[in-house]
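Reminder to self: tokens first, then the designed residues, so the page reads top to bottom the way the pipeline ran.
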């Protein structure tokens, strides 16, 4: 199973879960700050580490190697991606037994490579929703009969994952009739306060939570 940082709901009575996947070279601790910056007291956060060590960092992790890739590549045949896909899928399917919260009350999201993993794995599971933050598409989509609602956010000045990669993923999702809430911002490869507000709004709407005030500073 994946090593996971678990942050309980502040209310003590979780009404849903958010799983956030980190990007290439980061780790679970790097996305833990979202929990403090988005005021969602009725939600628990589950932040798994990717299974592979990053080649250029002693603390970073990766879902698969990106050293020589561009974002028009079909990654789906990489053996390390296939390993991560299975590990993540198995872990997600084990969550209800562990936490008591079913997948239809769980939102899967990720940043950059984590966003690509979200799109790869999330369409085939009965999740409440998906959040793809500065992400991209691995290859062919494999949607289920009913796709979860999707939040996609990308920076117009992203110099890591080009905006064109987000446009391609959006177009392909539209072809499979996915419901997409797509947003672009004047930012680079980052999670800005505007993105945090989009996350807050999407989670509230998707999980039908009682309103609270988004905390973005």
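Designed residues (217 positions):
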């Amino acid at each position: 199973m994946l090593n996971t940082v678990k942050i309980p709901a502040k209310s003590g009575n979780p009404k849903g879960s958010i799983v956030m996947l980190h990007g290439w070279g980061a780790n679970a601790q790097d996305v833990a700050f979202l929990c403090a910056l988005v005021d969602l007291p009725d939600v628990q956060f589950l932040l798994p580490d990717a299974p592979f060590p990053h080649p250029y960092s002693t603390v970073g992790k990766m879902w698969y190697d990106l050293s020589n890739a561009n974002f028009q590549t079909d990654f789906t045949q990489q053996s390390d991606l296939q390993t991560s896909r299975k590990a993540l899928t198995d872990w997600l399917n084990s969550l209800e037994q562990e936490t008591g919260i079913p997948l239809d009350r769980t939102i899967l999201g990720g940043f950059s490579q984590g966003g690509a993993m979200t799109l790869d794995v999330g369409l085939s599971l009965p999740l409440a929703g998906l959040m793809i933050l500065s992400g991209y598409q691995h290859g062919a989509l494999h949607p289920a009969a009913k796709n979860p609602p999707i939040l996609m956010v990308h920076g117009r000045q992203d110099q890591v994952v080009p905006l064109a990669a987000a446009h391609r993923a959006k177009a392909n999702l539209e072809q499979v009739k996915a419901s997409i809430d797509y947003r672009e911002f004047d930012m680079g490869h980052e999670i800005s306060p505007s993105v945090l507000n989009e996350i807050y709004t999407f989670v509230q709407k998707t999980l039908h939570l009682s309103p609270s005030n988004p905390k973005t500073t």
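The beta strands are 4-7, 16-21, 43-48, 52-53, 61-62, 106-111, 129-133, 150-155, 180-185.
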